[in-house]
Amino acid sequence: MAVTLLFIAEPMAVFPAASAQDNTNPEQATPSIELVSQSIWVAAEDTFQLSLRLLEAPNGSTLDINIGAPIRSRTAFLDRLAEPFTSPVLHQLSRLPIPEPGPTGISSLSVVTTSGQNSKANQPDRPRLFLPTEGVYPVNLDLRGPDGARLGTVHTFLVRTPPSNPELPPLLVSTVLSVSGPPAVDQEGNVDLGPTGPNLQTLADVLDPQLRPQHLVTVSLDPHLIDALALSRRPEHTELLARLRRATASRHITSNTYVPLDSNAWIDQNLSLQIGWQIESGAAVVDEHLGHPPDRTTMVLTTSASPELLQRLRRERVRLVLVPEALLDPVDDLASTSAKTSFLLPAVGDPMPAVAIDSTATAHFSRADDSRVAPYLVLADLAARWFEDPQQRRGIVLAPPMASLLDPDDLGTLLDEITTSPILAAAGPAEIVENLEPGTLRQVRPAGENGFGEDYEAALSDGQRIARSYQNMVDPIATAGTPERQLIETLERALLLSGAYGLTETQRDSYLGVVAQTVRDTVAAIQPPSQQRITLTSRSGTIPMLIRNNLDYDVIVRLDLNSDKLDFPDGDSRLWRLSPGVTQVQVAVRAKTSGDAVLKVSVNSPTGLLALGESQLTVRTTSLSGTGVGIAAAALAILLVWWARNWWSRRR
Questions:
Q1: Which of 24, 157, 216, 566 sees the fewest Cβ atoms within 10 Å?
Q2: Terminal Cα distance for the chain, rounded
Q3: What is this structure's pTM?
Q4: Does an H or E element contain 173, and which?
């Protein structure tokens, strides 16, 4: 037999102290009792350890333990939680002495449970709790003063579990630790994690490999948050990224888009392929900065899911999606443990397997008056679900609200006790689907208004073309860590962030505008040849051109040549590598006629999309062409013949 005690501290305003309490001094603290920790799974006739902290309790204070009738359904559990005094008392231990607190002010109390009314009579130093059958027992702990007045109350739930039985499957519990938030990098490249910073700290603390190396959890992170930590130069961000890298090593990390998306809006804007770009970019960030790639087969949905999106996810190798209950159509209530956690989502073609992320159990983290109580409350909730039908194999996916976790130890307690529980078993989401084959078909609600402008598709495409054009100028010769490579990453980051769910149209335009303006300012450092006159003394020759590169690194440009009177033996379009400073470019030409010819020179990016500058040169050819030489020779021959004949006639 095993037992769990769960403590919920009541506000002292609900339980005022009796007349023995001095209320004349408004600054005098009210006596109270707080839960510090407790052992969860305790077998019958075993020792149950309870740690309490007494605040301002007078000497001689004692503790009463009142046990209510056992609960074997979640409905009864929630009812009892709402009205903690309604349960009849099944067993009572009165006026138990409270051990002297240790150096830290914590008092430890040991209680033994028994299933027999007459089994081993109570002893003053070894009190026993009577628990006749398995179930979840309501418990009230009353702190009483020396005169018997109640000074404070803690409401608990004690869970007695059955003996080990292989035929009774445990409740499969998959815990997803998810951290998501708005863009952490603004349009100017400044990093601000905002409220997600403490959540990332909590994740690193809870999954510290020295504390929990083997705990089975699933991690879901917005890749843009990891990218922001890598971009930031603040020492605390660098340290946090290193801790997250250690904490997530060998953990199950789901695939995510770089930023949360309104997938329905992206599908409506014909941006299905761009969703794949977001997924690929997110996976690259996780792989680079956390040290191992995410599981591309699993993804957590954050906003919506149309059948077209699921089809796209299938093409991106996603095979299982995790869906918060708030996104599901409430036709079928999955809160009941009689319903399966896994289900099917309508997709183009075959339905896609999915599991629901239960929000009701972990809501206790937000509702508990004391954060130390919350993990025990979640465990009691899970135990009540198990008792509803212990013969049936069932599962549940939990996603504790990271923003409500004031102390990482609270989440650590939950993970630790799930691992050691005799009626719960840690599992991955895929394992739940394998054991609970999905049968029902569920729908996902569409996302709310997202502020997507009608021209976002065109604006995003233009931004991508501009960024790609600059990348073509430097990518073949740029190396990691160089300014040009960092600029490529900056442009890519701005494009990715522009699609984040929740941005206004103005904010999206700002991110896209950064791309165009940054590239324009950068390529303005490339100066085309100055206008000049060049003289050729032969039909063919080379023309020297001076192009200035005011950047600190090499770039590749394309020279486009155009002239009506000149031919270009090497082609009228050539790629050229420009080093910092002035580069002399030799262009081979062939004149069609003598005289002046206009040569137009355009300097562009290798793709031709970015115009870097243009100039006009005048080329003068002083030599005769082949036709001109022939005509001149013929004229000279005629002149010589005429002169010879004229001379001969005069002699005669």
A1: 24
A2: 151
A3: 0.84
A4: strand 171-179
Do the beta carbons of residue 511 and residue 498 sit within 8 Å? yes
d(CA 85, CA 140): 8
538-564 residue pLDDT tens: 888 888 889 999 999 999 999 999 988
Q: Which of 632, 621, 611 is nearest to 527 (CA)?
A: 611
Distances (CA, A) of 406 to 220, 292, 372: 20, 29, 10
Q: How far is CA 395 from CA 353, 389, 544, 583, 612, in A?
A: 15, 12, 76, 69, 61
| pLDDT computed for residue 19 by the predictor | 35
**Inter-residue contact 281 to 492 (CB < 8 Å):** yes
Average pLDDT over residues 64-76: 89
Residues pairing with 144 in the sheet: 62, 150
Percent of the chain with pLDDT over 70: 86
Partners of 557 in beta bridges: 576
Q: Is the pLDDT of residue 491 over 80?
A: yes
**H or E element in which residue 286 lies:** helix 272-290
| Type and span of the H or E element at 416 | helix 408-420
Q: What Rg value do the Cα atoms of the chain yield, rounded? A: 39
Which helix (H) or strand (E) element contains residue 79? helix 74-82
Q: Which are the contacts of 102, defined by CB distance < 8 A and separation ≥ 6?
A: 108
pLDDT number for residue 98: 87
Residues 6+ apart with CB under 8 A from 144: 61, 62, 63, 64, 95, 150, 151
Provide the CB-side half-sphere exposure for 615 (13 A, CA).
16
Q: Which of 337, 110, 299 is nearest to 221 (CA)?
A: 299
Residue 633: pLDDT band with limits 50, 70, 90:
low
> What is the token pair recorded at 520?
């324009």
For residue 303, the one-letter residue type is: T
Residue 175: pLDDT over 90? yes
DSSP3 helix / strand / coil % (the chain, rounded to 5): 30, 30, 40
Q: Are 612 and 560 in contact (CB under 8 A)?
A: no
Report the alpha-carbon distance of residue 68 to residue 45 in Å, rounded.
19
The tens digit of pLDDT for each residue in 565-597 reads 888 888 899 899 999 999 998 889 888 888 888
pLDDT at 421 over 60: yes
Rounded Cα–Cα distance for residues 275 and 507 (Å): 20
Identify the residue with better confidence: 222 or 643. Answer: 222
Query: For residue 166, what are the contacts with CB-CB under 8 A and spacing of at least 6?
Result: none
pLDDT tens string 261-271: 888 888 888 88
Q: Give dist(CA 568, CA 597) in Å, integer.
A: 13
- Three-state SS for 309? helix
Contact status, residue 512 vs residue 466, Cβ threshold 8 Å: no
pLDDT in tens, 611-629: 999 998 888 887 655 555 5
Q: Is the CB of residue 207 less than 8 Å from the CB of residue 464?
A: no
Token output for 29 = 């603290």
* C-alpha torsion angle, residues 463, 467, 469, 471 (rounded to 10): -170
Q: Is 197 left (phi over 0), alpha (psi -120 to 50) or beta?
A: alpha
Supply 535's token pair.
């003289």
Residue 82: its H or E element: helix 74-82
pLDDT digits (tens, 9 = 90+) for 38-66: 888 877 777 778 888 888 888 889 999 88
